[in-house]
């Protein structure tokens, strides 16, 4: 049986699901069957006491993606996209402090509304910010890797360290 577990945004309509190890293959089979339905055909949902119901495209796509994640042992969360979050909930979602989250909001990086003295943030906007932040982080990491390879820092070459320090506008530091 798939287990529901508590999430960080309790009380906002969030559902967090973790698969049991024994069900992963069964989940994979269901996901594969749904995904094979082909373009324009989403399949049917059959409840024990009802006739088959056509599966709407939106629900089909969610089920396929959920099955992919659950079949590999991953947990999934289902949240309403129009949910408004407190600054603490947004901070928890982004894995940052509430203070830093407020700075992000005040810098205009994520739109927010004020309700009295309190800020409220749309979950969809927090997700968009997180996606952009992750892309930027990966790009910076790629750039850092390219620079370290270009300057031979994986080899701990003294000349490469001197050139990098010069590039940064300083003197080489002891030990790199």
In summary, what is this structure?
The protein is an alpha+beta fold. The protein contains six helices and eight strands, in the order ββαββαββααββαα.
Question: What does this protein structure show overall?
Answer:
The chain has 176 residues and is of the alpha+beta class. The chain has two domains: 3-78, no CATH class; 84-168, Multidrug-efflux Transporter Regulator, Chain: A, Domain 2. 47% of the residues lie in helices and 14% in strands. The protein has helices at residues 24-35, 57-71, 87-94, 98-106, 123-150, 158-168; strands at 3-5, 15-18, 44-45, 53-54, 76-78, 84-85, 113-115, 118-122. The chain has a three-stranded antiparallel β-sheet with strand order 1-2-5, with helices on one face. Strands 6-8-7 form a three-stranded antiparallel β-sheet. Strands 3-4 form a two-stranded antiparallel ribbon. Strand 3 (44-45) and strand 4 (53-54) form a beta hairpin. Helix 3 crosses helix 4 (98-106). It is flat and about 75 Å long. The termini are far apart.
Keywords:
14% strand; alpha+beta; disordered N terminus; three-stranded antiparallel sheet; 176 residues; Multidrug-efflux Transporter Regulator, Chain: A, Domain 2; 8 strands; 6 helices; 2 domains
Relative helix content: 40-55%
Secondary-structure arrangement, i.e. CATH architecture of the largest domain: Orthogonal Bundle
Structural class: alpha+beta
Using the coordinates shown, work out and report the CATH topology of the largest domain.
Multidrug-efflux Transporter Regulator, Chain: A, Domain 2
